[in-house]
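hi support,

uploading two proteins for the ticket. first:
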Amino acid sequence: SADIAINSYLKSFIKKNNSSVLISTARAGNVIGGGDWSPGRLIPDCVKSWSKKNIVSVRSPNSTRPWQHVLEVINGYMTLAYNLSKNKKLHGESFNFGPNLSKRYKVIDVLKQSKVNWKSARWKFIKKKLSFKESKLLHLNSAKAKKTLKWNNFLSFKVSIALTIDWYRKFYENKTNMYNNSKNQINYY
């Protein structure tokens, strides 16, 4: 809906070839990383439970999502902004930023990899009747961003999960300055 609204605005009010205002739209997949406290999201729900030594209830262990670290997404958006400032032909274009289509990981994969970095992590699977239809497979085709912007993911799935779980573990241990920890992760990236 946002893409349609933005494109309608662009076509109605901003001329493509002679405007100093340049706009492109960008989308990302299932973004992970420290500091996400949104309810109903896998990793925030898990770490909240694990921090209290509780077992987290998880639905749909075999659902596949385009998991990627927030720093990958920020890199993509910044790459798009830079390229848009240099190339007006990108005005009005839309881009997806996500992991390679061959890198498909399930909810259970996220849980198992999280346990590597949060040893006491425990979960149980539940069957829950949802009030909405949930897709088993989600992915993003980022071929346009890779070809046009020369953008690519740098972090592997394992490293993305490790950085994410490490951030939350340190937050809940309350022994680390989280500003410095976040800066360290940015510097690592």
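and the second one:
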Amino acid sequence: MERIIIIGCGGAGKSTLARELGEKLDLPVVHLDKLFWKPGWVEMEKDAFDALLRIEVAKERWIMDGNFNRTISERVARCDTIIYLDFSRFACLMGVLKRVITTYGTVRPDMGEGCPERFDLDFLKWVWNFNKNKRESYYKMLNEVENVETIVLKNRRAVRLFLESLNQT
């Protein structure tokens, strides 16, 4: 595993897994939210984001967490591993609520500078509908990729076991 993308619903722990994997595998971590969001939760212009992403994707080794479906094919074409955190709606909502409670008002290390954690009802709705709107297309993509290892983890215990299995190799 040299070029890994981590996808899944908000609150599933994509950024946390990316950081932990980065430490275990000695790989640089690229948080797509950190590239995308400008201070004050302002979205980066599409062309500027794409240019930054191309620079990161061209590198030899990385872990990228985040969905950003508009650019996923570019990352999939270059990765050797896709990890899909296919968690339940409840687990993701609990993850988001825990994150808001523990980091409210602060800027997380995986987020753009000047973007403090906040409570966002629209984001909660996106999480609520994520599996209904995205699960089928993610599994379709996973079934169609060639020469890419695909790993689907269904809950936090599976993530923990996966990380522990890396200690044994």
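thanks. also noticed: The radius of gyration is 15 Å.
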